[in-house]
Amino acid sequence: MNPIARQNLPAYAASLGDSQARLDALAELSQRLLERCRARGASQAEVSCSEDTGLNVNVRMGEVETVESTRDRGISVTVYFGKRKGSASTADLRAESLDATVEQACAIARHTEDDPAAGLADPERMATEIREFDTWHPWAIDADRAIDLALACEQAGRDSDARIGNSDGASLGTGESVAVYANTHGFVGRERSTQHSLACALIAGRGEAMQRDGWYSYALAAEDLESAAAIGRKAAERAVARLAPRRLATGEYPVLFAAEMARSLIGHLLNAVSGGALYRRASFLVDAAGTQVFPEWFAIEERPFLRRGFRSASFDAEGVATRESALVAGGVLQRYVLGSYSARKLGLQTTGNAGGVHNLQVAANAGDFEAMLRGMGRGLLVTELMGQGVNAVTGDYSRGAAGFWVEDGRIQYPVDGITIAGNLKNMFRAIEAVGSDVDARSHVRTGSILVGRMTVAGED
């Protein structure tokens, strides 16, 4: 982008605005929409309103590639006529557009079939205490400063090792979101949050021997981000470490999932115990609540009230009060992950998880990353996963992978071109350790996870 274009881009700081005033306006709008729904005969209704603003810059090889300032708005209206449901959405605040949105939702509801599970969540489950979680930290950064940080991040990586020959670039993103959910039970919930990130991806080596890797930092407050120089150097270190990879002989080995990869195992669990998969009978954990799924020491807690938690919330997407509770305790699956609709389909009660889980903490039973390597002794460390080879119904698992071979508790050399395979039921039961090396860049907080034995397909 040329300097004139950079100068003409308005400072992101000028777009921040007053979050409380914006929330007040969205709350007032939601009430007007609910009144219109009632006036058109809806027995129940709910409205979600949100506003998002952001700034994103991308640089590569010392040059600016893109600068984007965004402002988005979304308004969703859902009405119920008895057990018939209709939904419509818009981003237009003009009165005629809002009227048309409500009318469209009502028209859809009038033409749908009755669904016994349809309707708002039960009124007695609405949240009555709305907490503040210190998630609002706007970053008054303009485009020029954002570009400078991204360039510094990339340059630090390129300068840190002579083997870095190319770059996939660096990016900085910052954004804020305000949202209101309201329904005809009289519930009105307000939320606001900010998100900031800085990332770099570098390429080491030359020709067919090139290897790519990167690093990123993600936080709700800019002061919690890693420094630009540290991110660039970490990206370079990771890319260089992957040079001259080898293949492995096909066999069965212990597999240690690095913390950022271990999250995917918990993600497969969440998909399997979510209400939609369960009532469709499309999960390998159908009817598994109350049964032993993991080793006896394994535990996962949902903690929705964490200060600066990425998914901290007083209420879920239906206004239902969230609560701290165990998902897994003593290796036993304690419950499913349900909103009110899926709960009714299953003959159960909502768990306050409409819209997803709110901060999961996987309990550690081992030490840091180095201790996990020593504990494994000999096996495969996985630092990258590729493909989507997971069968949600059977639990069969097969994914491309890359990482490092470990001998005597120490990393020996990089490996790629391999596939790791197993069945998630067996993999969960075969977990031997969870490290204390938690990757804090996600609402699923887990350290590295050691699976005692998996099939690794490499060289014949």
Helix and strand topology:
Layout (H helix, E strand, L loop, with lengths): L2 H6 L10 H21 L4 E17 L2 E19 L2 E7 L4 H16 L32 H18 L3 E20 L4 E17 L6 E9 L8 H14 L9 E7 L1 H14 L2 H5 L20 E3 L22 E5 L2 E2 L6 H7 L13 E3 L6 H8 L2 E8 L9 E12 L2 E14 H6 L1 E4 L9 E2 L3 E9 L3
Parallel strand pairs: 7-12, 11-16
Antiparallel strand pairs: 1-2, 1-4, 2-3, 4-5, 5-6, 7-17, 8-9, 8-11, 9-10, 12-13, 13-14, 14-17, 15-17
Tell me what portion of residues adopts beta-strand conformation. 25-35%
What do we call the CATH homologous superfamily of the largest domain?
Answer: PmbA/TldD superfamily
From the helix content, strand content and strand pairing, which structural class follows? alpha+beta
The averaged pLDDT comes out at 94
Reading off the top of the CATH hierarchy, the class of the largest domain is best stated as: Alpha Beta
Could you give the count of β-strands?
17
Total tally of structural domains: 2
SSE ordering: HHEEEHHEEEHEHHEEEHEHEEEHEEE
User: Could you name the CATH topology of the largest domain?
Assistant: PmbA/TldD fold
- The low-pLDDT segments are 1-16
Oligomer state equals: single chain
Mind describing the biggest β-sheet?
6 strands, antiparallel
Instruction: Specify the CATH architecture of the largest domain.
Output: 2-Layer Sandwich
- Total of DSSP H or I helical runs spanning 4+ residues: 10
Radius of gyration: 25 Å
| Principal-axis shape | globular
How far the N terminus sits from the C terminus, by CA atoms, comes to: 50 Å
Q: Could you give the order of strands across the largest sheet?
A: 3-2-1-4-5-6
Helix content: 25-40%
